[in-house]
Amino acid sequence: MKQKIFVYGTLRKGMYNYDLFLRNENSFRYYAYAKGSLMSICAKVYPAYLKEGHDMILGEIHEVSEETMELIDKLEGYVAPDYPKNEYNKELCDIYNEQGKKIEQAYIYVYNMNNPTNVSLLGNDIESHDYVEYIQKVKLRENSLFDYDVE
Prior knowledge:
Blueprint (H helix, E strand, L loop, with lengths): L2 E5 L8 H6 L6 E14 L6 E17 L1 H10 L12 E9 L5 E10 L4 H6 E4 L5 H14 L7
Parallel strand pairs: 1-5
Antiparallel strand pairs: 1-3, 2-3, 2-6, 4-5
């Protein structure tokens, strides 16, 4: 049985985990939004989604097999519901269209703020509410640090 998930970070199209986990499943259905906050994580190259907040976080709805969902659970550090050491909890959340109208529910991997390690690593707000755009800007900024003229 297929399950719908909302992905907002490295599982989005064009990102490295999409290529590893979703590309061959033809799972993409459409772009959508979830309300909450999107944060960077110190020393990590993936974001944290928090349900607290009112920002419209851009993501994608994918429909995946149970086998793929189990692989993604492992990727996201999800062991079981309410397991204190989960990096992310898998929760059924409301999904919205571009106009802010609720259209359905899907599973979202929510950063586990009950895990003290997670709390200590939480970084800054991703103001664009779009992780793909954010990571592209970070790469551009890093590349520009090395652009200089040698005389």
